[in-house]
From TrEMBL:
InterPro entries: Plipid/glycerol_acylTrfase. The lineage of its organism: Bacteria, Bacillati, Actinomycetota, Actinomycetes, Micrococcales. It comes from Gryllotalpicola kribbensis. This is Lysophospholipid acyltransferase family protein. SUPFAM superfamilies: Glycerol-3-phosphate (1)-acyltransferase (SSF69593). Coiled coil: none annotated. GO terms for molecular function: acyltransferase activity. It holds the Pfam family Acyltransferase. It comes from the Bacteria. Residues 1-24 are annotated as: Disordered. Residues 1-22 have a biased composition (Acidic residues). The keyword Acyltransferase applies. Residues 67-186 form the Phospholipid/glycerol acyltransferase domain. Keywords: Acyltransferase, Transferase.
Amino acid sequence: MALEADTSEPADDRETDLDDEAPAAPDIRHANRGLYTLARLTIAPLARAIFRPRVIGRGNVPKRGPVIIASNHLSFIDSVAIPMVAPRRVRFLAKSSYFDGTGFRGELQRLFFSSVGAIPVVRGAGSAAQSALDQSRRIIESGDAFALYPEGTRSLDGRLYKGRTGAAWLALTTGAPVVPVGLKRTNDFLPVGAKIPRRVRISIEFGKPLDLTHFGPADSGKARRLATDEIMAAIQALSGQELAGAYNEAPPSGTVERVKRMLHPERL
């Protein structure tokens, strides 16, 4: 059954400097709510004061109800930037190794990821990928905002890669609207391999919600592909990135892998 999101508040496409705006109260009903509240009250204002991110269209995010936030992915910092500027609590999956560390460093890393709404998941293909999608679906159906990157992993060359169909599957399965997000300059703010952020002003733009249910059922490969293409087109319009025209993945390791990709071109 499709779930409806409350979009009664008008969308606001104006650019805002969040350090001049009081943060909206987060929608917190789940585990780690205390950590999330603390992060919103301490880390977020400090980050806004220092880096002054340019944020556009926060009003496009429904204030209540299930919603999928689909973004381009340029830097590790993306998973911090989106939850810290969104007008409500945002959940997302993070690889389980971020939560498995030992000692003081491991505890600090676990605390950090929990505070920004991350949920541990074992990454992989096949059954592992479907398991992650099922976990994501449960989060959405509980009424939360859930963020993901349709490209699957960070773009190392700044181009926008072809979207995997997992985001569309979630939207068509749950009926939740998809809010596209365009991130700019987060790769300059924290380049791959860098440990100290640079003083670069990043941009985060939330687009208008997309209703993808008209494409058809989630078990239709054509519906998933068309819905995915609409999501990626909306992201590209916000980010302005050059299109790569391919999936963001390592070259096939051998003949068997090449055959698998030929027989199963869809990526979850």
